[in-house]
Structures are given as structure tokens and as C-alpha cells.
Queue: 2 jobs
Job 1
Amino acid sequence: MNLKRGFWRITLVLSVVGAIFCAFCAVGLVLDERDNARSYLQWKEGQYKEKYGILPPKALKGLDFSVPPDEFKKEGERKTLDEMATTPKKKWMPKSAVLVKEPRGQGMFSDLVQQTAEEEIRELRNGFWVNLSEERMESICVLAFLAGGVIGFFCTLVTIWLVGLSVYKLIRWIVLGFYD
């Protein structure tokens, strides 16, 4: 009887630890989803600016694309913003990002591509995760924490209970000599 009580206590403690772990993982997933949506929008707007030379209409304020990504820099080379402003773009931009004049007759196609890009950026700006206010984000994080905790508790409880029961049955089967 004492052995069963001890196993039950260990199972509950491990279930609480599993619940806490799952709760923090759930909050992390929610925050990661929001950050990914905002980063993707910023990346799309950066591509639009590189290709067309301007930000798309009604761009988010506070975005700075004047500093190139680290992958375009040479190794060991660190430049300040002032140095970057005086350096021509062609020196630090990859060849694929330098604008090339289109041959005649493709203006209509490029307008259609530009409109499609603007529409995609507009859809991204109207996305759920991008427009989420801080209060709503906090409430979603609290709900994710609670749901992750409950799910983690019960999943860990059932898993440990089933594993413990299986080990108990295996040991009993081995000790009784395969006759039970």
C-alpha cells in the first residue's frame, strides 16, 4: 500500500513539472507566431523597397532598411550607419538586388507584379497576428499558459501512469514465472 502511495506522489509531482513545461512552451509558441508574422511582413516590405525603390503604400512606421543584412557584409567588416549612408548601394547589395531596367514592352507585366506585391503586403498588414494589440496578446498568452498547463498535466499524468503500470505488470510477470 505504501508503494502505491509513493508512486502516486511521484506521478503527481512529475505531472506538475510537465504542466509547467507545457505551459511555457505554449506561451512561447504564441509569441513566436506573432514575431514570425511581423518579421515576414517586414521582410516582404524590404523586398518591395529593394525592387521598386519605395516602400509600399501605408508602410509601417519605424522600419529601417538602410542597414544591409549581415549576409551582405564582408567578414570582419562592421560599418556604422553614417558609413553606410556614404557607401553606394552597389558595393554592399547583392547582384540580384540591383535594379535593372526592363526591356520595352514589359511595363504592363511589371505593373501587374507590383500590384500583386502591394496586395500581398496589404493582406499581411491586415493579418491577425500583426494587428494584435498588447492587451489582447497578453490575454492570449494567459489562455495559452492555462491551456498548456492543463494539457501538460493530464498528458504527463496519463503517460507516467501507463508506463508505471506497464513496468509493474512486466515485473510481476517476470517474478511469478509467467504463470499469472
Note: Residues 2-52 form the longest helix (51 residues).
Job 2
Amino acid sequence: MIATLDDIEDLFNIFHDGSLVIQDRQSNPQTWKIDCEYLAEMIDPTFNFFYLKVYAVQQLSFEPWFDDTSKEKVAWTGSKLEALDLEILSAKSNEKIIEISGLEDFVDGISGGTLSLLCEKIEIFDQQSQSIPLEDLKVIAEFYWQKKCNAR
């Protein structure tokens, strides 16, 4: 279970280049899918993604980066968020909020944006719904990047 702001920030930074999709925004916890094949296949070569259970979401909004800079910046909330397929670039904490910046290729007129999240805690699961502690995910990511760097 991931409950501190620093750990939630770390979680989304680990998923750099992964694709975030909010699958079930209406429930508590919410279900999010992270397509991050390069890390998932470190657990099992047939895996492509992870699931997140996001508990007690108090704030969730997306501020798009419009291709047309003259457009008025209006944050997306509600069902509009379910259209997102955000390629995670980075995450940072801003007071109690996690700001996840990413690219968006599937919604016309925007190139990306920032997803703002305030929640109580998050759980990580693999493709077969097995819980993964954050520390284990950090080890997996570290191993992947060391292997990649050594291959150069």
C-alpha cells in the first residue's frame, strides 16, 4: 500500500513512458491501467501492464496542453478523463497534490497535459492481479535500467 506523497510521486516516475488509462473512475477504489510493457515483462515475459487501485480520490483533473495556444485553458474533470491515454513523462508533488505530466496522442487538438491527483493511497497489481509492493517495483525498475545501460 502506497500512502505517502513521496512514494506516490516515485510510483508514477517509475512508470515513465508507460501509458495511463483511467478505467473505472466511478468506484472507490478507482481502477487505473498502466501499460508499461518494459517493466511488466520483467515480472513475466507475457505481461504488458499493471493495474492501480486508487483509493479515496478527492481531486482528479487534467489540464491539457493545447496545440493551439490561443485556446482557453479549462481543466477536464468527470467522464472526460476516461478519454485520456496519457504517456507518463514525470510526476512531482505540489503540496498535497501529485502532478503527472504526460503526452496525449489520441485526443485531437492537445499534445499532452498535467493530471492532478489527490488520493489517500494506491495499490499496485500485476496483470494477474497479484499485489506488488512499491519496494519490489523499485528493484524491478532499477534492474531494468541497469541492464539497459550495460547493453550500450
Note: The chain has three helices and eight strands.
